[in-house]
Amino acid sequence: MPSFDIVSEINMEEVRNATENASRELSTRFDFRGIDASFEYKDKAVVMKAEAEFQLQQMESMFRTAMSKRNVDTSSMDVKPYDAHGRTYRQTITFKEGIEQPMAKKIVKLVKDAKIKVQTAIQGEELRVTGKKRDDLQQVISLVKESNLGQPFQFKNFRD
Questions:
Q1: Residues 72, 25, 60, 14: what is their CA dihedral angle, to the nearest 10 degrees?
Q2: Which tens digit of pLDDT belongs to each residue from 52-71?
Q3: CB count in 10 Å sphere of residue 133
Q4: How many Cα neighbours within 13 Å face the side chain of 89?
Q5: Can you give the residue range of the structural domain that contains 111?
Q6: CATH number reported for the structural domain that contains residue 134 in this entry
Q7: Same structural domain for residues 18 and 81?
């Protein structure tokens, strides 16, 4: 019986590269000369530091551009609210990895409502989709891709 897995993974090495690229761009920008602003990658998160809130917004835009150049889906970014420590503003960006239980249930409901003849099973942080026909599985793939669920998904282990 044909099957495949729906997963949500991010290449953290590309995120690190995007952070370094954004840091390089930050050092060459004229509007950031003489300003204490930086990007820092640590513990699978990116920390942005700047002297003002609007600078953090500009830095977020630079980071999104660097991420898209590295072919990392920016919808996986979870931008936390900024916090101020004296004259320094700090903002943390984390990344959504894995399919959490509520999102998995939403995908299962989406597939059931479409009345496609497949079975979906939640297996930890991924979903296994099994069906009799390859065409049904391809319908599920296109259905999940078309519905904007706020998280990037990959389709792996396609078996016939």
A1: 20
A2: 999 999 999 999 999 999 99
A3: 13
A4: 16
A5: 3-8+98-159
A6: 3.30.70.860
A7: yes
